[in-house]
Amino acid sequence: MNKNWRWLPAGIVPVVIVTAAVSGSAVAEAQPQLPAKTAQELLEFVATSAEDAYSGTVEQSSDLGLPDISMATPPGGTSSSDPTSTALELLTADHTAQVYVDGPDRARVQVLDQLAQRDVVVNQDDVWFYDSSANEAMHAVLPDRESAKAELEAKLQEKAAEYPELQDVPRTPAELAEVFLATIDPSTEVTVDGTRRVAGRSAYELRLTPEDATTLIGSIAVSVDSETGVPLSVTVQAKGQEDAAFQAGFSAVDFSTPDAGIFEFTPPADATVTEAPTVDDARARMEAKDEPIATDEPVVIGEGWSTIVELPAGTAAKLGVAPGSGEAAGMGDIMDIKPGMDPEEVAGAQAMLDQALTEVDGGSALQTSLVSVLVTDDGRILAGAVGVDQLVAAAQR
Amino acid sequence: MSADGFAIETRGLTKEFGRQKAVNSVDLAVPRGTVFGFLGPNGSGKTTTIRVLLGLAAASSGEIRLLDGDMPKDARAVLPRVGALVEGPAIYPFLSGRANLQRFDAADRHTSPATRNRRVDAALERVGLSHAANKRAHAYSLGMKQRLGIANALLAPRDLLILDEPTNGLDPQGTREVRSLIRSLSEDGTTIFVSSHLLAEVEQMCTMIAVMSAGRLVAQGSLDELRDGGTVRVRVTTPDVSDARRVLTGLGLRPEPHGRDDVVAAELAVPGLLPEAVNAALVHADVRVRGFEASGASLEDRFVALTGEGFDVAG
Amino acid sequence: MPAERSLGLSLVLSEITVLFRRLRTWAMIGALALIPILIAVVVRVSSDGSASGRGPAFLDSITQNGLFVSLTALTVAIPLFLPLTIGVVAGDTIAGEANLGTLRYLLVAPAGRIRLLLVKYTGAALFCLVATLTVVVTGAIIGALLFPVGPVTLLSGDTVGIVGYFGRLLLLALYVTVSLMGLSAIGLFISTLTTIPVGAMAATAALAAVAQILGALPQLEWLHPWLFTNYWLGFADFLRQPLVWNSFLDNALLQFGYIAVFGSLAYGRFSTKDILS
Questions:
Q1: Which residues of B touch C195 (CB under 8 A)?
Q2: Min CA distance, B72 vs chain A (Å)?
Q3: Does A309 lie in the same domain as A247?
């Protein structure tokens, strides 16, 4: 008797699952039918969608052609005490975040790490940053918005009296879009590149394509929700790389007003709380100091997409990058090397950095698929969204 | 199939393991109400046949009818009416004897949980294990485990019992108890299919037997039929050897040379010819018969002839 | 004559009874209970009040709030100890019965092969829940005994009361149980392949290790969402405010996929298998 049919479910079930997975993503990728919009109309649409209340899950991933930095850092991310490494980690590693927004005054972003979480809570004038793995909270008070706005307006009026051409400052979204397009036009092609589905919603795809041959950036695409005008995702494409170099977007979004309680934050009783200096404090402190913080202004070379920023000599030394050696001992800052860390971990991070750095004419360079950084032998740092050869050329100018 | 048909019937039952045929086109027919002996040396395919009968293993080809259903198609309807002991008992060593039986009883969704404890106790009582019911089964002797295995087959009223080597590991007293148990069950109308490699056991318990050898069914029928199937030999002791040979040849027999020069022997291969007629013919021909012996084949001889192996008569 | 068929819950009950009457089961539960106890005692004895930021998650929080012992213990138990015990139970399901020879008597009873598979899986799933709860409850008790107990700080920095925290702990135990269901299904399938339970147990536990190793390799990122271990540590979603259900739903879907695939494989194998033991 043939009983082989009993194996049938074992054959069918995986096929069903794969089919469901594939067709599910096919549905997700199907292009929704939407009324056509020009780039100008789409920009206006974005600009008008000011009052937003929504919540959702944001997924971020990047492929910069770098060794995975997250491997060198302990799980749960880095400590908030080191803003450089936190920023780098946030940008380069993959993340999932819960985002809650209720108008311009209330927002909460929760970066969901494994068994840990980092929160940024904005509630009116209060800003909280909380890192669960270190149990540290930072509090900042925003300057009074209304007064700041009034001050800005007054200044504008004042300036406008001085310079009549400033009367043309765009005020309506339409004007804003027009000015934006006019400014950006020579260097960039702005198109509406069809429609797509993001987080189960239909969206327009706005694409910015640099017409500059030297930049590493292939294009930037912004998906705009067709109903609300809220940007749902950003994708940065690097030249010569098939996978997106950087991608951040909603995987789920809900356009209902989040519960008000979400924006209320009281730091846990046992957390270390630091008070960030207010803007006025910071200004006062800067003025009180004898020597100005930045003596040498960064030099900007070129314009548009291939702009190169040059930090003057001494910056590298200040950061601890040993000039000329090709070794970047002080990059430990970036790699989150702290006293008390496992020496092996430090060595591993160092090795990874050495691997990433390449020896070039007149210095050593870090090349990612989007950005290049050159540390010259004389201690200058040049960076830009261009190839290393461009930086070398700029350095030797 | 009517109620007075067969409890077990197979046609062309074959079970192959790779290229080896463990069971080779077996046509079993076990009439209802009988105590049926399934005889064969170890490794002759008895246990494999039983596994296939019970749906534990799938037949490579052939048909099986068990009670009123086709196996394995109607297993769910048929098996609750069948009690079985297959290739020795199997127990959960960490459970008591009683808990073991409760577990097996729970596996059958036709049994009533309400009567479970009563039925388990009755089965234990029947095989004489009541005193050890709460003992962990890993402490049981081989014989006690065997009794527990039989008790498992008796948890519910059964129409058919398939017992594979039921007296294995039992002492003579236990063997006698099992024999009388089988007899009493049979009197209740249960068909009992007992496999064994012991001829004596089968001879004492069974009214019908089937003989397996090397995967084949070589004989099947009542004990008497099988005995009759054997031929009788005559042995004549006489000083007139050549005359005796002539007479025997004249009767259509083929006298064989014998070790002694005053003995003539022959197989009684002519249908209807009885030993007494042979003797009469010899006397009639003035052969001086000093000794005449007609020996029917013993069952043992019969099985040696059928299976080519000796049986372990002593057990 | 066969009586009318009952629902057959007797066998499920019997399975549970047999599972929890085994010394081995209690030895494993005891070993799991030892994890939070060890953690709590070691932290209590060596506590110098300074948070080092190293070691398993939540370890530093224990001295302030004993209720965190459960979480630390779960974090430690999930990668190794829980899969190991699940491997033993799931790998033993069919192979163990085959090894004892009791499988043939269950089938002749007749238990029915599909029903037996379902019953065995139910038993394994229940063990997943008991094992997880053992870690969580023991952790809460020993934590409460050795350390101060109070409102609990969640990952998001919000604070919940003890009752709310226990609600979340229960959800969390449920999450971990669901996480282990896929592995149980794999173990059930492997168990139908052999009559040697130790082999099935080792293979199941080894697969859990392999999946976690693959999950740690960034080169195999495309594979990660398909690994049954992918969401194992995602239980932290129940420690966020507001509650995030994404991991739970993704995890449930993934585990269900594994149950479907390996369940049907186990069915294919077991329903066509010759029981020769």
A1: none
A2: 10
A3: no
Where along chain B do its domains lie?
Answer: 6-228, 233-296
Q: Record the tokens describing residue A71, joined without a space.
A: 């491997």
The reply to whether A22 falls in a domain is no
Q: How many CB atoms lie within 10 A of CB B72?
A: 22
Residues in chain A with CB shorter than 8 Å from the CB of B72 are 1
Is residue C277 in some structural domain? Answer: no
Residue A140: strand pairing partners: A127
Which structural domain range is residue A242 located in?
A: 39-273
Q: Which of B107, B112, B152 sits opposite C11 (nearest CB)?
A: B107
Give me the CATH number covering residue A94.
2.50.20.10
Whether residue A26 lies inside any domain: the answer is: no
Query: Are A53 and A188 members of one domain?
Result: yes
CA-CA distance, B223 to B244, in Å (whole number)? 34
Helices (H) and strands (E) counted in chain A, each on its own, are 9, 18
Q: Give the count of Cβ contacts less than 8 A between chain B and C.
A: 109
DSSP B268-314: --STT--HHHHHHHHHHTT---SEEEEEPPPHHHHHHHHHSS---TT
Q: Give the closest residue to C230 by CA, choosing from C204, C197, C254.
A: C254
Residue B134 near residue B97 (C-beta atoms within 8 A): yes
Return residues 47-86 of B near C (CB < 8 Å).
51, 54-58, 75-77, 79-82, 84, 86
Are A43 and A144 in a shared domain? yes
Q: Could you list the residue range(s) of the whole structural domain that residue C112 is in?
A: 9-272
Superfamily for B6-228? P-loop containing nucleotide triphosphate hydrolases (3.40.50.300)
Tell me the chain B residues in contact with residue C117 when contact means C-beta distances shorter than 8 Å: none
Nearest residue of chain B to residue A3 (CA atoms): B58
Q: Mark yes or no for CB contact A3/B59 under 8 Å.
A: no
Q: How many domains does chain C have?
A: 1
- A339 in a domain, yes or no? yes
Residue B78 main-chain phi, psi, to 5 deg: -85, -45
pLDDT, tens digit only, all 397 positions of chain A: 467 788 888 888 989 988 888 887 777 777 888 888 888 888 888 877 755 788 889 888 888 776 554 444 444 444 444 555 666 666 667 888 889 988 888 889 998 887 788 888 988 888 898 988 888 888 888 777 677 777 777 777 777 777 666 566 556 767 777 777 777 767 888 888 888 888 888 899 999 888 888 888 888 898 988 888 888 899 988 888 888 888 888 988 888 888 888 888 888 887 888 887 766 666 676 666 554 444 566 788 887 788 888 887 766 665 555 444 434 444 444 444 444 445 555 565 556 666 667 888 888 888 888 888 888 888 888 888 888 888 888 888 7
User: Chain C residues with CB inside 8 Å of B80's CB?
Assistant: 2, 109-110
Percent of chain B whose predicted confidence (pLDDT) is above 90: 44
Rounded CA separation C90/C104 (Å): 19
A139 and A265 part of one domain:
yes
Residues A331 and A247 in one domain: no
Q: Which ipTM value was assigned to this complex? A: 0.88
